[in-house]
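Exercise 7.
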Amino acid sequence: MADPQDKLDLLRHADFAKVARFIESTTGIRVPPAKKTMVEGRLRRRARALGLSNLDEYCRVVFEQGLFDEESVHLIDAVTTNKTDFFREPSHFDTLRTRCLPEATERGAGFSRPYKVWSAACSIGAEPYTLAMVLADYGASTGGDWRFQILGSDISTQVLAKAARAVYPEEMIEPVPMDMRKRYLLRSNDRSKKLVRIAPELRHTLSLLHLNLMDARYPADPDFDAIFCRNLLIYFDRPTQDAVVGRLCHHLRPGGYLFLGHAESLAGKDLPLEWLGDAVFRRA
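Solution. The predicted structure, written as tokens, is:
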């Protein structure tokens, strides 16, 4: 016979539905029943942080006893997925290096003004720091005072704090080419910790912004040369995808590039974007 206490540490179907509705209405991210076990595991950590004994008590305190406003940010942080890697989907960085940057530089970007890139779901920082490495290398190749700026945004305050710290386990940097590791990564003085930190000259190029892509307006500049919003749209329904991409287009320069995840498509959407293949689009 199952221990009644064990049942209290599982989400009731009604409580899981409340969590799923809140996450989707707030972030646009769907939380299907298949993710119930994952959600339970993450919310158990929140219950322990609040000194609560099980999920039944956690849901009662949050949804029925007035803790919801205080806990909502932590609930979003706990449930949203933040999978990220350095040089993830590497062909996109090749396209940036060989096509986007030379085109923009011919128009004066980097010299008359900074080249600007937005990592619109930056998680713990692997994507924007990968961009920083690529852009820094390109700038060095121009032989001049080539400048760039990177914005990283995310809905999770926890991952933004990790991005700001810019410290990563050594195993995470395996996709980074060795020459870039030598130039842009600093190893911990205590080698037993097996940690690296992004070099300060790259950290200083990155600004971080707490941003919900479900918001009607984004407090970001309107003139980015490239926007990376990869592997996020797959968690949204079609109307939300259309709305988010439409808003991102307002922040993209004419001729600027939008990079999506390889599993994502804009087929059939009425947007001012030209498909170039490989989940890369250019604003008309």
